[in-house]
């Protein structure tokens, strides 16, 4: 599953630089995560780095983007391939 940032976000700016896929960006009111780029850090780290650093625990699984670890790994490989091209 991709992750999402909930309304509890305090815009502390710590999650955005931790994302290896550049999936996190400043939205209109709070930070947001592009589900097409989020791999939950699969391929990079054992745990999602944004969740590790979030001081208010406002990053959860996105219910509309259900993906297995295998799906996330395929997405990771696709994103890596796009970086090379």
Automatic annotation (TrEMBL):
Residues 1-29, 31-64 form the 4Fe-4S ferredoxin-type domain. The keyword Electron transport applies. It comes from the Bacteria. InterPro entries: 4Fe4S_Fe-S-bd, 4Fe4S_Fe_S_CS, PSI_iron-sulfur_center, YfhL-like. Keywords: 4Fe-4S, Electron transport, Iron, Iron-sulfur, Metal-binding, Transport. The keyword Isomerase does not apply. One of its GO terms (molecular function) is 4 iron, 4 sulfur cluster binding. This is Putative ferredoxin [4Fe-4S] (Fdx).
């Amino acid at each position: 599953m991709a992750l999402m940032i909930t309304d509890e976000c305090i815009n502390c700016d710590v999650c955005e630089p931790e994302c290896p896929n550049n999936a996190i960006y400043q939205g209109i009111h709070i930070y947001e995560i592009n589900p097409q780029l989020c791999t939950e850090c699969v391929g990079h780290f054992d745990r999602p780095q944004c969740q590790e650093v979030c001081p208010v625990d406002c990053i959860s699984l996105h219910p509309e983007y259900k993906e297995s670890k295998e799906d996330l790994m395929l997405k990771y490989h696709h994103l890596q391939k796009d970086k090379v091209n």
